[in-house]
Specification:
This protein is an all-alpha fold. The protein is built from five helices and no strands. The longest helix is centred in the C-terminal third of the chain and has 46 residues.
Length: 130
């Protein structure tokens, strides 16, 4: 189970109990803006301790399994392991984009050097004329 499913379970529990973000923030003892950010992003940018605080405040665990799609109570260690896996996948995606960007930069640099070489080797045209 990932953080998105866990947060979806928390949102379902909030709706069931008619809680607002402000109410949840007071219960979890975190800021209302943090609660809003975590719930709107489905936990993708939240620390495991923040998600744990929200789940603990809502009592999302074994008794809420039926509302959260079979979610079981998880330990903080399991939450941290899940979060680490999520972050490692995000890092891998960013590394792929960095490699692509590097290849594009190398190709553009090679193209510019090629244009520069052609410009120097043909004295009749281009920027450098003799």
């Amino acid at each position: 189970m990932d953080f998105e499913q866990l947060i979806s379970g928390c949102i379902a529990k909030m709706e069931e109990e008619n809680l607002t973000n402000k109410d949840l923030a007071q219960l979890a003892q975190i800021s209302e803006s943090t609660v809003s950010r975590v719930l709107s992003s489905k936990g993708s940018n939240a620390s495991a301790s923040t998600i744990t605080a929200i789940c603990d405040a809502l009592g999302v665990g074994a008794d809420a399994a039926q509302h959260a799609g079979g979610m079981c109570e998880r330990t903080k260690g399991e939450l941290y392991e899940t979060r680490i896996d999520d972050l490692q996948r995000a890092i891998a995606r960013k590394e792929r984009w960095n490699k692509r960007f590097f290849v594009v930069c190398v190709c553009l640099t090679a193209f510019i050097f090629l244009l520069f070489a052609v410009d120097i080797l043909t004295p009749n045209i281009g920027w450098f004329r003799t």
